[in-house]
Amino acid sequence: MFGRFALLISLAAAAFAQNPIRGYPPDQWKAEHEREQQARSMPSPERMRIYLERMASRPHHAGSPGAKAVAEYAAGLLQEWGLETRIETFEPLLPYPTSRALEMIAPVRYRAALNESAIDTDKDTVDNGQLPTFNAYSASGDVTAPLVYANFGSPADYDALRTQGIDLKGKIVIARYGRLWRGTKVRLAAENGAIGCLLYSDPREDGYFQDDVYPKGPMRPAQGVQRGSVLDMVLYPGDPLTPGFPALSDAARLDRAGAASLPKIPVLPLSYADAKPLLEQMGGPVAPEPWRGALPLTYHLGPGPATVHFKVDFDWTNKPARDVIATIPGSVYNDQWILIGNHHDAWAYGATDPVSGAAALLETARVLSQLRKQGWQPKRTIVIALWDAEEFGLVGSTEWVEKHEEELERKAAVYINSDSNGRGGFGAGGSATLETFVREILREMPDPSSGRPLHDSRGDFHLGALGAGSDYVAFLDHAGIASLNFGFGSPDSGVYHSNYDTLDWFRRFSDGDMIYGKALSQLTSTALVRLADAPVLPFEFRSLARNVARYLDEIQRSAPPLDFRELRAQLARLNAASRAYDEELIAALRRPTDPDRLAHLNGLLAHAENALLLPDGLPRRGWYRHPIYAPGRYTGYTAKTLPGVREAVEARNWDEANQQARRLAGALREISQQIEEAARSLAPDR
């Protein structure tokens, strides 16, 4: 009986080892699968717990001694494991608050606590040098005005207020967190005439309406506050004073008044304990039912009679941001890079955001170092990064990309990103050209809870489009590097960006056994080994053609005046070029191929995403140059696909929409030419 069972296991393993791998000849599939299985056997939850406890044991916001200590700790580990490691330091604008005050002066008086009180059962919630509650890059200001409640502060919400005859001019907006990027909420408040903005966490989104609050449950307690940047990152992320250039110590800088991404009005984030007394005193029309949160009060729109005075000021200084960069040189394609990154800075302790992901990345680096000790050397160079100042606005990664932009254009093939990680479902977004690559890896990765392959648990798997919110933005949207973003976890954490994102919370309510951290390390280790060693980079372009066609169909349904014939013609060319390339690739991988020809082919493939870039970028935000993906001008986090065309259509600017359609057609022509050349390079008579 046992012998029969062992035979079945052996046969299953043999069949598994014959699963096709894009970019590899059939006679290399078995060896590659075995190498990847070896990598997946190595990640250690115990080691990841050590990294987590060390990095999340004290506050480590960007520019602080804590962030410096975390960067040096990570660099020390990478060096200990034999990786070439350096710390690259930038000097971006990282303002800390110097003054914060909020009081209601009518119809009753109330002074906001603006404080997250300690929880007796969690020692880390005691003030230990963390930054106070604030919104990074808020304008300094001292304002007094009646309140207007604006729901989530979206364009549709302001339209609804106007239909009620509510004028925002000279008022202070109070809006709840959620739905769109907080910096966009602030810009829209200012554009609608508000002189200040208060952002609060309503318990409907991440408080007691969802589950018990911390420490009894995982959700945000009454005094919990969501810190966060309010940069207008849909214009450009990174240091607001050096757009397009690295924030080095000797960099030329804009005046703050000339920095387009800096908000023009003061902002403060509030707990729902501080928001409740303000909302209770508001009058005016009753808010529509979808606008009502979960506080025990009737939500009114205002204006007033609740009138508040608040003041905020900042030190407005440059501070060091330290990126940790480790390199494993390639043995064949040394000048072709596979990059992976996760940030290391947090708003306070950051056990979930970002240390859960940073610990998994460190363990991936250790796995690769162990493989090297056992004789493996990647064919391509692997670059491992821990970014600083992500929380202030993707600062460390953006400045690094801007510093190395010319080198990245020559060498970078793929960037893989991770961020927070924890117990929950798997999520992945990225360039459509990598969809087949990810699907093949998920076929071999077990889900940490069910044990079934992740591909099975996702059904008909497709990569989501990347918008904003983590460090892939500069790589994909500015530098044109094919990118991925991986992670496990629920959509949001009840203690997100608060002082309660501690080791105790993470152990009790997320991934205390680090099983999902182990899974993320297994996934990224597999992806890096496969990408680094692939004889042919595993890009697949038919998925890109299908996605662009789908996006275009969505737009055309709402844009009857537009002529998309040229765009459709270039899309047909892309589809034909993609099919022809696949046919040549299948044939080429079954016969001996000259190494010089493979090197030429890989160079074409590595630069295919870059061929899409628009030299002068998207309308009114030229830093963003990718014509397929960008954060939405009025959403931020959520992607706008075919953004130049789509946002012009949404604005009913038909002339601009036609112009952007022609530019998109030109971008598709460029990548089609790249793919056609790749196919020709594989032809046997070449």
Strand segment count:
18
Query: What about the largest sheet?
Result: 7 strands, mixed
Low-pLDDT runs:
1-16
Write down the overall geometry. Answer: globular
User: What is the name of the CATH architecture of the largest domain?
Assistant: 3-Layer(aba) Sandwich
Individual helix count:
22
Widest sheet: strand ordering:
1-11-13-12-14-16-15
CATH third-level topology of the largest domain: Aminopeptidase
- Mean pLDDT across residues: 94
CATH level-four homologous superfamily name of the largest domain: Zn peptidases
Separation of termini? 56 Å
Q: Helix proportion of residues, in percent?
A: 25-40%
Oligomer: single chain
Strand percent estimate = 15-25%
Radius of gyration: 26 Å
Question: Would you kindly provide a written description of the structure presented here, covering whatever features stand out?
Answer:
- There is one protein chain.
- Helix content is 39%, strand content 15%.
- The relative contact order is 0.13.
- The chain has 3 domains: 34-92 and 319-533, Aminopeptidase, CATH 3.40.630.10; 98-314, Glucose Oxidase, domain 1; 542-682, Transferrin receptor-like, dimerisation domain (Transcription Elongation Factor S-II, Chain A).
- The longest helix is centred in the last third of the chain and has 29 residues, at 654-682.
- Helix 9 links the parallel strand 12 (333-343) and strand 13 (380-387).
- The protein is α/β, with parallel strands linked by helices.
- Helix 2 runs antiparallel to helix 16 (515-533), helix 9 crosses helix 16 and helix 19 (595-606) runs antiparallel to helix 22.
